[in-house]
Design brief:
The complex is a heterodimer of chains A (about 200) and B (about 250). Chain A has about 200 residues and is mainly alpha-helical. Chain A contains eight helices and one strand. The longest helix of chain A has 26 residues. Helices cover about 50% and strands about 5% of the residues of chain B. Chain B is elongated and about 160 Å long. Classes of the chains: A mainly alpha (about 200), B mainly alpha (about 250).
Chain lengths: ~200, ~250
């Protein structure tokens, strides 16, 4: 049995066609790579930020984002449309990120070469240093959380999901999401009290 | 140690956002006004939320080096051994054939076993009539004996039932139901053949008269004769009760 590997470079136009998400999904299921490129461009930032909030490393986050979209493309036939596509993609990415964190068995490294603040670091060095300090502090506090607590912080406070979306993304009930978020925030508050208390 | 009310208040403080803080329950707001510990907790939660919010604003929307092109790979499997496709129906045919043969071999003895109770029922009254007085009738054992007394091929004196006379029990073939005559069915039970044939004779045909002619009148009409009267011509009662004697 021979296997021939075909590769498509997903086309990402600057101005993707305004089209219904369901139509794009149907076109993707039919093998239209242009439609998948449109979905990729629409949702890649949300997936990337969610994964970055969990793993903390932009390079790993980008790899996991690509992996999440590839998995989503292969499993697109199983998408029933009960949740939004963005929620479904974030769910795939979050699970990949949790597996990545567990597999790494170590706290993700904080990359200091981020272009934080959209290039404002070059304008105001003092503000840039303050932002870097804040970012490191919060990153340490988030990394100290268990992965299942880290996820709810990221989905709620970084991605701004509501409780029902979080429940769909995590595959649990809204009550469980609230309880998990309460414990995660209590832990995060305790960490930040230690970290921010020394600096204040 | 925190009071229970403070624990519940902390739950609401952790979950509420700044913009919906006015949606706290009334008892929590009243407790916040009276409890300095919970007021401090409220400030800590607010500061932590603010820090996370600012951190979220610092997260980039894209990788620092820009997005790499997304490559979707798909494996197109080519069959280099198409004989597998040809072998699949052949294997299916073999399996079906084997199943049919096995079904045939299994269903044949079942048909004979199904017919034996009917034969036993037809034979039972005859055997009861001819059973010896000191012997128990063998009617209950007729069914198992019908199974165990199947005709064997090596025995020539035990005729076998013709194949076309087998009653077909399967509804698939649905051959015409053949009801063999009674004497043929009896012949199918080789060990019971003798008794059954005798039974048939005794029930249907009463035992004939002995071949010796009984002509007592002739004896009386010709009393003077030199020839000795054969012993068979003398009629004597075999039993006193038969001759009218009183016991």
């Amino acid at each position: 049995m021979n296997a021939q590997v075909w590769e498509w470079r997903v086309a990402t136009g600057e101005h993707p066609r305004q089209e219904g998400e369901q139509q794009l999904i149907e076109r993707c299921r039919a093998g239209d790579m242009e439609a998948f490129g449109t979905l990729w461009q629409q949702h890649r930032s949300a997936v990337f930020r969610s994964i970055l909030g969990i793993v903390g490393n932009p390079q790993d986050a980008e790899d996991l984002t690509q992996d999440a979209f590839l998995r989503a493309y292969r499993a697109l036939n199983s998408f029933r449309g009960e949740a939004q596509l963005r929620t479904w993609l974030i769910r795939i990415g979050v699970h990949l990120a949790i597996d990545h964190v567990k597999r790494k068995k170590a706290h993700p490294e904080v990359s200091l070469d981020w272009d934080v603040g959209g290039g404002l670091a070059d304008v105001d060095p003092h503000a840039a240093a303050e932002r870097n300090e804040l970012r490191e502090t919060v990153r340490k506090a988030i990394d100290a959380l268990p992965p299942h607590h880290r996820v709810v912080i990221v989905l709620r406070d970084i991605e701004g999901m509501d409780y029902s979306e979080m429940a769909q993304a995590l595959g649990c009930s809204v009550g469980s999401v609230k309880l998990r978020l309460f414990r995660a925030r209590r832990l995060l508050k305790q960490r930040l009290e230690v970290l921010l208390g020394g600096s204040q | 140690m925190k009071r229970l009310l403070c624990r519940w208040a902390e739950y609401y403080l952790a979950l509420c956002e700044d913009d919906i803080e006015h949606g706290l329950p009334g008892w929590v707001r009243r407790h916040l006004q009276a409890c300095p510990h919970c007021q401090a907790e409220r400030q800590n939660y607010r500061r932590a939320r603010e820090a996370v919010r600012r951190y979220a604003g610092l997260l980039p929307d894209s990788p620092p080096t820009g997005w790499r092109p997304l490559l979707v790979s798909r494996e197109v499997k080519q069959r280099t051994f198409p004989l597998q496709l040809a072998l699949a129906p052949a294997a299916a045919v073999v399996v079906v054939t084997l199943g049919f043969v096995l079904w045939q071999s299994v269903s044949a003895p079942v048909d004979e076993a199904n017919t034996s109770p009917q034969m036993a029922q037809s034979v039972t009254p005859l055997r009861l009539e001819n059973a010896p007085p000191g012997k128990k009738p063998s009617a209950p054992s007729a069914t198992p004996s019908a199974k165990t007394d199947k005709p064997k091929r090596g025995q020539s004196e035990q005729p076998t039932l013709p194949v076309q006379n087998k009653p077909a029990s399967s509804p698939r073939h649905a051959p015409p139901v053949y009801h063999p005559p009674r004497h043929i069915v009896i012949a199918a039970q080789p060990k019971q053949e003798n008794t059954l044939s005798v039974d048939t004779r005794t029930v249907a045909e009463p035992s004939p008269e002995p071949d010796v002619p009984v002509q007592p009148v002739l004896v009386e009409a010709h009393p003077v004769t030199s020839a000795p009267v054969p012993e068979g011509y003398v009629i004597e009662a075999a039993h006193p009760a038969t001759a009218g004697a009183v016991e």
